[in-house]
Specification:
The radius of gyration is 22 Å and the shape is elongated. It has a six-stranded antiparallel beta sheet with strand order 4-5-6-9-8-7. Strands 1-2 form a two-stranded antiparallel ribbon. Strands 3-10 form a two-stranded parallel ribbon. Helix content is 27%, strand content 30%. The longest helix has 15 residues, at 21-35. The chain has helices at residues 21-35, 47-54, 58-70, 101-107, 126-131, 179-187, 205-211, 257-260, 266-269, and strands at 74-77, 81-84, 91-94, 112-122, 140-149, 152-162, 191-202, 218-228, 233-241, 245-248. By secondary structure, it is α+β, with helices and mostly antiparallel strands.
């Protein structure tokens, strides 16, 4: 088993994995920085030491470090070495706004990137068919996006859209900008509300790989249906959010409560 070196605990590298070795090492070090195992200001071992620790070549290690440096997780200075840079503060997502992830964070000044790693027309699962009120022979476009903010993976979002309502949707570019904006531009469909369930779940190994976190780490999952202006179900989405995101929402009394003089019991508020 690899030994601990200067706070670094090198993980095992699978040379037979389809994920390149340099990417596995980059992800392993990034995970330790995000978790706090590698503290801000700590120094990583030299390239030759890292190569020995991971059992790979120095050139591969260099490639991994270049990726970490370009994402802002480390700073490399001649004569000083490779220094860990503390993760930035979590980004804030406003749940009460009908505004896309991309648009919200761009307005906050963050640089965002969307990676589509799955896109196919399939027969949807029964739960999706029911949620979207689809017939037994209707298909959906399913596509999965990894949402990055300043080089950090923040969410993995899987969406289903009925192809009968959105013909040739598989040919629409969904990587740049908002899905909702694409539906409005290409099909004249505007989402007016969403209905979501929020759960705390343990991520699978593949989800952990996408979010650069440990397997079995808990994350927040939103499962929901989006409705258009005519209140017709339009989109079914499952979004898994990492711990680098914090959510904000506002609450208010139900209509008529204040006017009637009734007061909610303190324990019902949920504080």
């Amino acid at each position: 088993m690899p030994s601990k070196q200067g706070g670094l605990e090198p993980g095992l590298i699978d040379v037979e994995s389809p994920v390149p070795v340099y990417a596995q090492v980059e992800q392993d070090i990034r995970r330790q920085i995000l978790s706090g195992s590698l503290a801000n200001g700590s120094r990583l071992p030299r390239e030759t030491e890292l190569a020995n620790l991971y059992g790979i070549s120095r050139m591969t290690i260099r490639h991994s470090l270049e990726g970490l440096a370009s994402s802002g997780f480390i700073q490399r200075t001649h004569g000083i070495g490779t220094i860990v840079v503390a993760p930035k503060e979590p980004v804030t997502f406003e749940l009460s706004l009908m505004m896309s992830f991309t648009e919200q964070l761009r307005r906050q000044g963050f640089e965002t990137k969307t990676i589509v790693d799955l896109k196919a027309v399939i027969d949807p699962p029964e739960k999706v068919r029911v949620a979207l009120a689809l017939g037994s022979d209707e298909q959906c476009l399913v596509f999965r996006r990894v949402r990055e903010v300043e080089g950090r993976p923040m969410a993995v979002t899987t969406s289903w859209l009925p192809t009968t309502r959105f013909p040739s949707i598989e040919n629409v570019d969904l990587t740049n900008g908002s899905l909702w904006a694409a539906l409005a531009e290409h099909y004249g469909v505007h989402l007016s509300r969403t209905d979501n369930i929020v759960e705390l779940v343990s991520v699978s190994p593949s989800e952990a790989h996408q979010l650069h976190i440990d397997a079995e780490t808990q994350a927040i999952r939103f499962t929901g249906t989006g409705y258009d202006a005519a209140d017709k179900p339009t989109e079914y989405t499952v979004a898994l959010w990492s711990g680098q995101v914090r959510f904000h929402f506002a609450s208010h009394e139900p209509a008529g409560i204040a006017a009637s003089g009734l007061t909610s019991a303190p324990e019902a508020v949920g504080h």
